[in-house]
Structures
1.
Amino acid sequence: MSLNRLSRFVCRNTRPSGAARTYLGQRPPLWPLALAACALQMSAGAQPAANDTDSFKSCPSVQGAGCTQQPAASTPVAAQYKESYAAFVEMKNKAHGGTVYTRADYAKMPDWSGTWTRAGGGLKFDPAQPGNLSEGKTTAVLTPKYEAAYREKLRQVANQNEWDQLSDCLPAGYPRWLTEPFLREFIVTPQETWMITEQQSEARRVYTDGRGHVPESDAKPLWTGDSIGFWDGDTLVVHTISVQHGQYQRQNPDYSQATSTLERIRMTAPNMIEDDVTVWDPKGLKQPWHVVDRYARVTTPGSRIDMWSCESNNNVVRTADGSTQFVLPGETVEVKRSYRDPDTFFLTEAQKKLFEDETN
């Protein structure tokens, strides 16, 4: 990232985001220079834009409240996302731009309140996958590299050598987020929809206020990606890009940072929400992967989602050979800690080796 681009990024983020803090940790000398360049830009009367070409103003309904500049709907996406994004735009055009809701229309929006849980599928990304996970009968058509990595993962698991980033108290990440078995909520508002899982309080934010994706020059891989959407009647259509490298679920294939998805989410019955998902990954998939997930309403008396801390009950360590070891009551395990690369430390050694060209 050049000093000019970084200064524009800093001007738009007066309180450094996670991406900014990560960059600060990697390139400390540039940060103060970027702050100085930003100050000069602002003192000269220049206003920071959401991208280099155009911007979109996201405004609250409160009279006199300030607006926030965001990427314009026309903001282009990176080459690896163009096929899925074209499908998203086509759906939006067919929906005549989608239904635009305001606070005054809130009562007209779909009511997805309550708590929900995944209905079937276990830990399979595609609930329709036949057999047990250990049999490796994924319905995804993988590229040779990702197919080999998948088979190696299953071999390692069969030898009782498995590590999951959840044991580092890290997020599941998206699209794996779709498969997690814990409780979840769908919080619908006119400008955005939050989808939150009980596990790690991991939230996806789908912006439906008309903004576009974060420009390629400012984007970086995120655990839950960058999601924008629109309402097609009672269906929420979501396009997601900029995800972190991960696995679809334990004993499932991996996906790359080039992954993007297109979802159509709707209530199909009073107690059922359906998520029709298509995944594109030019590095990991030979062709788009289509799956359908369903979430059932939880009606157990007193059910609710409480915030919980993974670290407060984390008695798992990664061994020298990369496997998982549980620390039992009365046991003591010595753990050596060294610098952890924030972009790769959560990967297994096998993942780092197989995907070195993608994660470095």
Note: The first helix runs from residue 3 to 12.
2.
Amino acid sequence: MLWFSVGRLLTGADTAFKQQRLKAWQPILTPKTVLPTLFIVAFIFAPIGGLLIWGSSLVSEISFDYTECENLQGSQSNASLNWSPLPSNKYTYRLKAGSDNIDPPSPRYAYIPDTGLSDPSNQRQCIVEFNIPIDLQAPVFFYYGLTNFYQNHRRYVKSLNSDQLQGKYVSPSSLNNSDCDPLGAAGPFGNISIYPCGLIANSIFNGPFPLLSFSPGTALNSDIRYILHTHAPELE
């Protein structure tokens, strides 16, 4: 069967805007126009790059990877440590310019599987002993790095209680029935709220470094105003 249809062709208004006939500048790239532009950009950014390289050369960075610490032979206490040398591929010394001839001693580390402390976060300890061969000028920053530690699951991201973080009281039963579950409340009867509750607050990497002292002001003002003043009747 053969068939055909007759219809009306819909077109927009015959204007330069709708028909894409607006005037436009279409530059023609030639060596006479491109090369001066490249030289001008290089003239501007080359000194900036030189200043950045000079500034980074004044920074000293020391890093240690103690991931395999728990595989070491355990020590009984801090008084009798079984030291092991840290492998050369597990630490780096990047000293500032002018200190390249300094050869610092190799760091070593030891592992205590059970310190006997009641705090679970301090029951296992990894002690790293290292030498800082030069004087570090203030400010000195301390960082820790993690690999393969992903926290982008939808349930994980939602695992918090906004009212609790704002300092409002939330009952343990409400926390157990909220997005904080299964870390909403604890205790033998589930009647003690976890502050702060949820997977986010209770699974973030926590590596205490007791030999370091931090200046006041490291806590966020929002944490001081709200989280540290949360009212918890069941703990009173």
Note: The radius of gyration is 31 Å.
